[in-house]
Amino acid sequence: MRLLHTSDWHLGRAFHRVNMLGAQAEFIGHLVTTVREHAVDAVVVSGDVYDRAVPPLAAVELFDDALHRLAGLGVPTVMISGNHDSARRLGVGAGLIERAGIHLRTDPAAAGTPVVLADAHGDVAFYGLPYLEPALVKDEFAVDKAAHEAVLGAAMDRVRADLATRADGTRSVVLAHAFVTGGEPSDSERDITVGGVAAVPAGVFDGVDYAALGHLHGCQTLTERVRYSGSPLAYSFSEAGHRKSMWLIDLGADGSVTAERLDCPVPRPLARIRGTLDDLLADPALARHEDAWVEATLTDPARPADPMARLTERFPHTLSLVFAPERAPDDAGVSYARRLAGRSDQQVAQDFVAHVRGAGPDDGELDVLREAFDEVRADDAVREVAR
């Protein structure tokens, strides 16, 4: 069976105020063409279809167009909700849509109920595990601790239990939206840390033939059977080095996996340039970036006059301007943003405690901080669903 694995469409998302809907529509067209030209048997979409719980109307219309075009090909599609999606909204009409071969899996309780497709070699069971917010699904999976590994492990136990009841030779594919150990994150993914832990081990997917992952925006191979497709478009300058693509997966009669990367259309390349303003404007080696979306980091010791206006004369698609004067790390003039770069909300809170009283939080206080941040995250998730 030939599968096309994609994820993280983030329909409705902008890139530094640039409307990406046209590029997203181009990707949907490319997806449909790829399905047709490569004789794909099934499409899997591993979450974050939309960029937010209540997407703009134009994004909903694009999603509707994608569903109609995929259904028109007669190729089954299995998709799950991600942490950016409202699972309840995305799942509206799922039973009716399923008649057209579009299988929306947004209910955690149905983790062990697969979509079963068949080829010449027998059945392939597709298990859709939507994003599992630990605090919200802890009771459903009867786990003691609201943690990613616990709830995803319990969901996978249901998958393996169902698979054990099926005929010998039944192959299996799991769609999951999670941060798996070994994956490389980028700046455009929403933090899903719970209890101080964001990642789950790849071994949680043992026992299935292929795990089609979503959440991380870079295309990655964790094992031959566990892969991220990544997002089809770049959504932050941290993805400037990404090759945006989808996985074309051939699932053999014996469950063996053969994978090929298929590139996605690039609306405009990304470039990160760094140096003094005068150097950036004069360096001939930067000519290749003049048509790119640019993030410029200026290292001038003092902020130059009209930097954006001057930069856009040479780089008309400059979208982001960062000031990073070259100073010693402990220099009081180092910006607040630079000092916080790469630090989680909890780490910032711990630093604040240490700054105020001269010593960091003890183990008990760390637990209190973790619980507070987890409760806020869970409350935010509930509010998004209720909106």
Model description:
With 387 residues, the protein is α/β, with parallel strands linked by helices. It has helices at residues 21-37, 57-73, 87-90, 94-97, 134-137, 148-164, 277-282, 307-314, 336-340, 345-357, 363-386; strands at 2-6, 14-15, 18-19, 42-46, 77-80, 102-105, 115-119, 122-129, 171-177, 179-180, 199-200, 210-214, 220-223, 226-228, 245-251, 257-263, 270-275, 293-298, 318-323. The protein has a six-stranded mixed sheet. It has a six-stranded mixed sheet with strand order 7-8-9-12-14-13, with helices on one face. A three-stranded parallel sheet has the order 17-18-19. Strand 7 and strand 8 form a beta hairpin. The model has no long low-confidence stretch (mean pLDDT 92).
Q: Layout of SSEs?
A:
Layout: E1 2-6, E2 14-15, E3 18-19, H1 21-37, E4 42-46, H2 57-73, E5 77-80, H3 87-90, H4 94-97, E6 102-105, E7 115-119, E8 122-129, H5 134-137, H6 148-164, E9 171-177, E10 179-180, E11 199-200, E12 210-214, E13 220-223, E14 226-228, E15 245-251, E16 257-263, E17 270-275, H7 277-282, E18 293-298, H8 307-314, E19 318-323, H9 336-340, H10 345-357, H11 363-386
Parallel strand pairs: 1-4, 4-5, 5-6, 8-9, 9-12, 10-11, 12-14, 17-18, 18-19
Antiparallel strand pairs: 1-15, 2-3, 7-8, 13-14, 15-16
